[in-house]
UniProtKB/TrEMBL annotation:
Database matches in InterPro entries: Flavoprotein-like_sf, FMN_Rdtase-like_dom, NAD(P)H-dep_FMN_reductase, NADPH-dep_FMN_reduc_SsuE
Domain NADPH-dependent FMN reductase-like: 1-142
A Pfam family this chain is assigned to: FMN_red
Any one GO MF annotation of this record: FMN reductase [NAD(P)H] activity
Record's protein name: FMN reductase
């Protein structure tokens, strides 16, 4: 099973991209492949002029069509999702998300942008006919970091919310996934058995 993540950040190494990275790890544990696409994967002219016949845009539309579900990840600027995300969403044909669950992941500078998920992102996804739109995860940028190896590290509370959201999203995809706390309990139990 494949899920497509659309990164709405203008930077491939942004805090928003780190939310996708952590989601990738959680989905991989459930045997779900996560592929990512961003504006960097397209020639600027094809995006700027909306060249729907361009091979890379057609490939994107096919990947959206073939995906079991989507993750839409974006930073919030001035109470709205990023323009880069808008450009990519405009490439999806009308009704292009029909039958697909969507998990929004949003990052912002303060808790004050939390409502952007409901007031700016979800209406666009609904207009594209997403079958189920998860409530999503909003992260304050200060909760998102990286370790010495450059791997994403999230504040504990955010990590728990993201894990829960990913498992709920997997359920929307029809994957029977144990709840994150059950996984943690099982891992602790196995560790104790091994140490005996």
């Amino acid at each position: 099973m494949t899920v497509l993540a659309i990164l709405g950040s203008p930077s491939k190494t942004s805090r928003t991209a780190r939310l996708i990275d952590r989601s990738r790890v959680a989905l991989a544990a459930l045997d779900i492949e996560l592929q990512t696409i961003s504006i960097h994967d397209f020639p600027a002219d094809a995006l700027l002029y909306g060249q729907f016949s361009h091979p890379q845009i057609q490939d994107f539309q096919q990947r959206v069509g073939a995906a079991s579900g989507l993750i839409i990840a974006t930073p919030v600027y001035k109470a709205a999702y990023a323009g880069a995300l808008k450009v990519l969403l405009d490439l999806i044909p009308e009704g292009g998300l029909a039958g697909k669950p969507v998990l929004p992941l949003v990052s912002g500078g303060s808790p004050g942008h939390l409502l952007a998920v409901d007031y700016s992102i979800k209406p666009v996804l609904a207009a594209l006919k997403a079958s189920a739109i998860h409530q999503g995860v909003y992260a304050v940028e200060s909760q998102i970091g990286a370790n010495a190896n450059g791997e994403a590290e999230l504040a504990e509370e955010l990590e728990q919310r993201l894990q829960t959201a990913v498992h709920e999203f997997a359920a929307l995809l029809g994957v029977n996934a144990p709840a994150p706390h059950a996984l943690r309990y099982a891992n602790d139990f196995i560790s104790r058995l091994i140490s005996l």
